[in-house]
Structure formats: C-alpha cells, structure tokens
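To assess whether ligand presence alters the predicted conformation, the chain was also submitted together with protoporphyrin IX containing FE. Input:
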Amino acid sequence: MQAQKLLTRNPRAELYYDLVELLTGVTLVGFLWTHMIFVATILLGKQTFNTLSQFLDDYYLSYVGIPFIILVFVTHILAAGRRLPTRYQEQKIIWRHARMLKGTDTWIWVFQVITGAAIFALGSIHMWMVITGWPIRAMTSADRMHSFWWFYLVLLLLGEYHAGFGIYRQFVKWGWFPRKPLGYVTKMITAVILALGLAALWVMYELGGAV
Ligand code: HEM
C-alpha cells in the first residue's frame, strides 16, 4: 500500500508541495520567533507591550497579519500533512522502523510529525482565544497566561522544538547550509527564544495573579 503510494507520486507535484511546505514553514518560523519577541516586550513593562500592540493595530499590521498567518498555518498543515501516516498500521510500521534504524534524523522526523499535529490543535485554540479576546492588551494576556500557564508552557516547548528542527531539516534538505554550523545556530536561537518565552510567561503569570 505505502509502496504503491510512493510509486504513483507525480514528481513535479511533489516538488511544488515541497516548495509550499518550505515557504510556509520558514514564514511560520519567522512569525513565531518575532511574535515571541513581541510577547517578551512585557519584560520592559505593561506600557511597552500595550504601545506595541496599539501600533500594530493603528497601522493595520495585526488586521492584515493575523488572517495571513492563519492562511499560512492551514496551508503548511495541508502541504506537510500529506506525508502523515494516517492509518494505525502505517504508524506502527514507521514507529517500528524508527526503533530499528535508531537514526537521529528518523526520530527527529517522527517527533516533527507528533509536535506538528499537537501544534495544529493547541495553536488553533490559542489563536481562537486571542482573536475572541480582542484587542491584545497586557492585562488580558496576563489573565489568560495566569489561568492557562500550563497550556502556554506546552505550546512554547512544542512550538520551539518544531520550529528549530523544522528550519534545520529544511536548510539541510535543500543543501543551503552545512549541517554542523546550522545545528549550532538553530539551537542557539531556540535557546534564546525559549528563555525569553519562559521569562515572559513568568512575568505574565505574576501580573495575572496580582489582579
Ligand atoms: C494569529 C496568530 C497569533 C497571534 C495573534 C498570537 C498572539 C499571542 C499573544 C497576544 C500572546 C500573549 C498571551 C495571550 O494573550 O494569550 C501569545 C503567546 C504565545 N503564543 Fe501566540 N499568537 C499567534 C499564533 C501562535 C502560534 C501559531 C503559536 C504556535 C506555536 C503560538 C505560540 C505562543 C506561545 C507559546 C505563547 C506564550 C509565550 C510565552 O510563553 O511567553 N502563537 N500569542
């Protein structure tokens, strides 16, 4: 069945799918890292966070950017999701192969699939909460992050894993950068963004608890 699926694939269509997966993936990583820095402005105080959010509204960057990111988010899931082993039998085979091969790249791919599926669910809930709680302001964000801190912590870890390894795998796959330095750079950026995210989560948690 799996072999049949592989043999009947149209190589040109596969290339277009790969390019869509790459472009939407890189766009989402750029968005995620930028949006983390935006959330981390809470470390500079409520006023700075609110001024930035007001600026994004006043210049329509949020009203144009959010629908664009949702479109890219859905397109990425459709392009990357075509390789998802949907049937339990297929999943079992892939898991068994991964254990047999013990290759780091195989396991990175398996966890890319698992984290991707989880981000699809949690990311959608998160975007729904932010959009229905409009506008974005420090105290409404702090309230959400205080009540649901565990949700944001899980989303932060999943998101940074998926973004970091996603961009590493894509750049290696297309042969744009040598593996080793690329590994160092993506790990370093991921560590900085994770530290910022955890610090912002802590400050927001304290702020939300002070109400
Ligand atoms: C339209 C897209 C998005 C918007 C407008 C947005 C906006 C926000 C805002 C305002 C916050 C602060 C907390 C809150 O108010 O709930 C936040 C936090 C967060 N967002 Fe998003 N977000 C978007 C998409 C995503 C996606 C796709 C992810 C997927 C990984 C994500 C991951 C996170 C994480 C992990 C935090 C917590 C940050 C921290 O720990 O400091 N967001 N986002």
